[in-house]
Design a protein that fits this description.
About 80% of the residues lie in helices and about 0% in strands. By secondary structure, the chain is mainly α.
Length: about 260
Amino acid sequence: MKKDKVIILFSLFFIAVAIITSSSVYAAQSFALPNINLSMSGGTTEPEKVSTLIQIVILLTILSLAPAILLMVTSFTRIIIVLSLLRHALGTQTMPPNQIIVGLSLFLTFFIMAPVFNRVNDEALKPYYEEQISGQIAFDKAVVPVKAFMLKQVREKDLALFVKIAKEKRPTKPEDISLTVLVPAFAISELKTAFQIGFMIYLPFLVLDMVVASVLLSMGMMMLPPIMVSLPFKLLLFVLVDGWYLIVGSLVQSFH
């Protein structure tokens, strides 16, 4: 009798498993997602579809290059390096977090680059969307304000370096400078400026660290890390001088 009961239980178990499996397979078949296929045949007779597909491909390409464009041709590089150096100078390790530093850098970049973006929108994007100019003319017009912004910040020494490396003729006017030369020159100029600002930020905190370390050494507290004592004083100093106001204000004004 016990064997019969065991056999019956196993039979019911396998029947239940079979029912659940078949129902899940049926559900998977009934709720299967449709296949998405993006293709373009060579003999299509609908130019609207071809144009839309090309625009999608161009848009995806621009979106994939957007981070590099943001880093190389805007004020983002200088801002995020200065804020990162400020955090290291304070000795707060991960405070503020990376998300806050990146977010603040992005919004400050949008604020600084707003006049440039407005010119690009008015002179290039709007006429292009209204089909008044072609795509090539829109690109040429969009590059002009971006070039003007970068030329205000780039150093002549850095620009001359890449002109020499590229073996190009010395440009007689700003319009003759190509983006392949201007973008890397602007990038290293921004790096140098950011490190200069970071050095000036480091000095007062470095002096405070040295004073605290000397006091602890004179008191015989060699086993106490100076950073644990100097951190509250650095935070107090930064708050008393309204450090965020000074740092952000100086960063924004450095681009004008």
